[in-house]
């Protein structure tokens, strides 16, 4: 059987989540997230957010969360600013544009939007022929596994407030970011510095689910109407409440993320040991080693992974992803296989 | 605790579904419905559809399925025809319009679109100032619990083919319809007579999920791109495959629906026995008794249900819904409470 | 040659408008309505609006004005209330829905929305499954040539303010309404009672053009960005300024409307004299006589008009429209032809 | 008074166009482009298109034409490819995205899309997470005044057909391109090589108006319904017919374009004579000289023009546009003023 380094959502869910669904299965609750479990889950999350009053909504997936939130925040002629490598820019089949809004791509450094790129963009005179930028979209960790530091997020937040931009963070892998060794940001910081962000469950041990935190009061009004309209209001909303309650009442969320990072770290160390270099320097659960093209077909026979982009004529950037469900043995097998292939190479 | 007659999705899921999720939880599969479970579930459903080649896609909820399918089927200036009581018309926050398309309401009889209403509509001359009707949306069972007969569906299908309309059936409660005593339609008939329809899981024992069957070849092209764009491509798509596999491999789907109808029938018999009359005559899991307004507050203390609309000055149409999870005891308690209230009334 | 009673925009433009274009043709002005002529035209119109501060924008046509304004005013989940006979409901190819918004049809009396219909609608409990009504769309004169009185508009305005609805009046034929004998409304009243309305030029002697008056301050923000986005910002915007300047600096607008109504009145008197009855009672430039079906083909040989809808088995409602360009002789010929046909009928 | 080098639509219209409107003003015609003048204008244009059967529609402006056409051509998940400097990408307030479609920016050379850029783009594997490119948008002349050669257009056309892309050319300044000294393309070539293109009137002497030529049969179906929906069906459609008839029956269109190019050439020669260099090399009516920043405020006192973008610390790229209405004297004054400023500079 294939060993998965392609996605961090290849299994069902963390066993504690399934257990919770089992023990509550016969309960009868109202639909659409109006149940007690959702309320408890919201309270559990709010306890991490400090004193900032927030509204928390549970949605099923990341693309859905992005499109429902962004379409809610913008007027027809308003646009999103995003790194050109942003997930909404490249990997969501134009879902934001399908709600009527342009995404303006900004040059990115290691997947990150920089203050410099924003300053350069805002130097252009705004005319009545141009969309009005109104929202800055970041992912943290980024699509390249890198992280914004607390200082970077504070600077971007300040810039946004000065320029009347909403700041929104896509946290599909927020867990992995929050427990990364170099991380300096807390959930409380996100609540303080952004106007909205989401905490990803799908890629952190849930069956599915993202918790969207709305901070700016303008953004909360009638949000559930927009959720329903976009097909994002789950009938059995309790399923989301139950999962996030399980994840946040005993910090399971962080434990799961920590496991993923730990496996990634073991893999990184092993690859470095083999003399392999990396495209971006990451401490989260995504690694981007540079591998020789001629080894990829052999590796693909036993391991699934993503060929990200060409590096040079003979090498490619490859993405390897770990999760709490990755085993130590998966890591060992990958490293041993690669080691064997390298040795063979050396003999030829 | 409240006894639920308000929704048919108040519990978790049928135990066999949870069991299936548990036993497969550790399996590692590809994402986005490209796994074996989805394929097996598609085969299991296809085995009910006869020789018509279909494409089957799994989506999370009904509103999502309707908007993803309809936006896929129509050009910008094309519109949907629907009963004025149709779910997309009244209860989905304008989700179809949000994808750019008008819904033209047709007068409905017992929640059903009639050939007569269609003929009347098509008598109007079409001008370049009017949307072009291109798709007929039906629900079966309807929002009022009524059923189209085989003859009715055949006539509507013929009309649609003559007028170049796609015929689409919203089957949120298709299970309850298929096993209703008076039902004359099979899944094979749906595949033969419609261009697309969906088989509802959410309201028939699943945690969530709808199986969309695309029959007309024009409608299948690139459908998954539109799913992804609308936020309707579940990352852990296997969850849908596993559920529909469980529902269809041993006919559990029909068994669940049968239980819901059986409870509804017991409730109907009891209400008739109390001399209560009904707004629509249904054999599915939705009942619409006409109850005196002054009893509703008392009933609401122990039972949840929907006050559908005023009937006359002193009475309201009430909707009672059952599911496989409704117990015999729930029925008995409701009938006894009502009986007691009626007796008290008689004494005053 | 055919004599036109079908449309009130069958000619080029009032000669004074063409003359203005000729005399200013060589002037070089900035584009997009940033020229002096537009400013002068805005001032000329503002002088009729009293002390209410307004923003005035010039657009090319009515459908364009409706869709640009309405898409500007609403959030994604908000909807328009309109008479079921409203122009945006029936005759603009779903242009409002194409911008993402549902139109909720209200039953209409003589083409008019009534307080009663609004009260009935708002009695329904609002749920998270329903669009949120946010804007009331009226046409005055209506599509059936009828007029709202001052009292009616005041009541509707009050209702809208109480229910947080914007009130918007489509004034495609506002001129004809303003000078109708029974009219009790002034432009100042419109500015006082509505949140936005437009003054139609196309159907009142202009080559093209509608002047949109934005009153509610929320509605004015960034409006020109939305105009540009919808393709509604004319490059040579001065053409609109020049036309509305000509129409409003010496009250030509009212004179043109008066001529149209006068011709309509002559036609009405003549038809009444022939014993013909009317479907709606109008004092504007649209008449809806009820004519025998068997005469329509003969009449159609010399006159163009619209067959509106069947009246009974043997009669149809016909729409006859006049404009300032309709001649007395056109009226006489129509009446004589009809008289001759009636006499022939009487002989058979 | 300011001398205009900012836009090529600063005047009213070519006198012959106004004359035509005057002489036909009293004619009564059907609305919405169903009149004889439109038919004659279509025939006049078709006579330039060779044997390819086309459908020709008249719209009011360029943004409107682009959005109406592109929204007609694409399914929800399909996208446009455009030079990153394309007009729809930068200067139309996200009008294409507002109809639901992503524009994928391609790196541009002198404002032109290259085969190389297309090949590079299509090397990326297409996944279900990415929009499907379906239409290549070009402008000719480009936004930078440059021209595609016949060979380039043939190669791009071939590429598009191989990759199932529609090829669409925005011809806002097509006239200037067609009569440029280096031009090798005829209208017949456009009809042979593209799937649709438009012939710009607004920037070539008309009051307003663009003639959209639909060549691929799939694109023509129901196009007028989409026009009406987008507010792009002019009530007095004859105004467009009359203008294009005037432009094409005696080749006035080409004469007007020739005048604009001639003035641009005089201006170019004068600037070269002053030793000024250019950002792009153009033979059409747009020039992009590189001017010293410190002279721009002084120049701006008498001349209007566009500061396009910074060139280096001390210079800017400036855009100068000419039209048939630019006089020889305008050119002389600009050159003399600049000469004087340069001389002063030399003295300091």
TrEMBL record, chains A, B, C, D:
<dbReference type="InterPro" id="IPR001597">
    <property type="entry name" value="ArAA_b-elim_lyase/Thr_aldolase"/>
</dbReference>
<feature type="domain" description="Aromatic amino acid beta-eliminating lyase/threonine aldolase">
    <location>
        <begin position="25"/>
        <end position="288"/>
    </location>
</feature>
<dbReference type="GO" id="GO:0016829">
    <property type="term" value="F:lyase activity"/>
</dbReference>
<dbReference type="InterPro" id="IPR015421">
    <property type="entry name" value="PyrdxlP-dep_Trfase_major"/>
</dbReference>
<protein>
    <submittedName>
        <fullName>Amino acid lyase</fullName>
    </submittedName>
</protein>
<dbReference type="InterPro" id="IPR015422">
    <property type="entry name" value="PyrdxlP-dep_Trfase_small"/>
</dbReference>
<dbReference type="InterPro" id="IPR015424">
    <property type="entry name" value="PyrdxlP-dep_Trfase"/>
</dbReference>
<comment type="similarity">
    <text>Belongs to the threonine aldolase family.</text>
</comment>
<keyword id="KW-0456">Lyase</keyword>
<keyword id="KW-0663">Pyridoxal phosphate</keyword>
<dbReference type="Pfam" id="PF01212">
    <property type="entry name" value="Beta_elim_lyase"/>
</dbReference>
